[in-house]
């Protein structure tokens, strides 16, 4: 009888430690900046999803939400509405609705700036060697990834793809 009681107490202690460590991890990520990244149709069709996600994680960003979606022309047009009227808008909408994309909420210290550094310059010929666009982009219009350019835009872009519930911390 005492043996069973000690086993139960040991299990209770183990669960307490486990949940305490989960709370600590949750606290570590609480208040971290979030940004949106999209792996575009060209990089998805070229099977670069895993390599791109690995770069985010190896640089200290955490995946807070992720999904693969197929934008229709209206969805792509709505998402890139800020560019309406610009000469490249129609081609951008056509490209972004040409195949599936992977939408990702990245979380971490200075997530917007860090993501933009990892992506590299919009024009892959000007992107620093070792950045995503330098390594995977085909052209300035098919440049593998999108990233929010500010915290304010991230707050607008993230809800376009993810509900609040889908963004819950994994801890």
From TrEMBL:
GO terms for molecular function: ATP binding; metal ion binding; nucleoside diphosphate kinase activity. ATP binds at residues 40, 88, 116, 122, 133, 143. GO terms for cellular component: cytoplasm. SMART domains: NDK. Residues 1-20 form the signal peptide. The active site is at 146 (pros-phosphohistidine intermediate). GO terms for biological process: CTP biosynthetic process; GTP biosynthetic process; UTP biosynthetic process. Homotetramer. PANTHER family: NUCLEOSIDE DIPHOSPHATE KINASE. Major role in the synthesis of nucleoside triphosphates other than ATP. The ATP gamma phosphate is transferred to the NDP beta phosphate via a ping-pong mechanism, using a phosphorylated active-site intermediate. Belongs to the NDK family. This is Nucleoside diphosphate kinase.
């Amino acid at each position: 009888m005492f043996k069973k009681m000690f086993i139960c107490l040991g299990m209770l202690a183990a669960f307490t430690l486990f949940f305490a460590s989960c709370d600590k991890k949750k606290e570590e990520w609480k208040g971290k900046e979030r940004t949106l990244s999209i792996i575009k149709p060209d990089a998805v069709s070229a099977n670069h999803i895993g390599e791109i996600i690995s770069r985010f994680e190896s640089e200290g960003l955490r995946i807070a939400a992720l999904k693969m979606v197929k934008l229709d022309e209206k969805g792509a047009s709505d998402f890139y509405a800020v560019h309406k009227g610009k000469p490249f808008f129609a081609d951008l909408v056509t490209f972004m609705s040409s195949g599936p994309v992977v939408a990702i909420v990245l979380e971490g210290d200075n997530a917007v700036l860090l993501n933009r550094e990892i992506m590299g310059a919009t024009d892959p010929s000007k992107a620093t060697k070792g950045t995503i666009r330098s390594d995977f982009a085909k052209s300035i219009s098919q440049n593998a990834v999108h990233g929010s350019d500010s915290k304010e835009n991230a707050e607008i872009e993230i809800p376009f793809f993810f509900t609040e519930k889908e963004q819950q911390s994994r801890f």
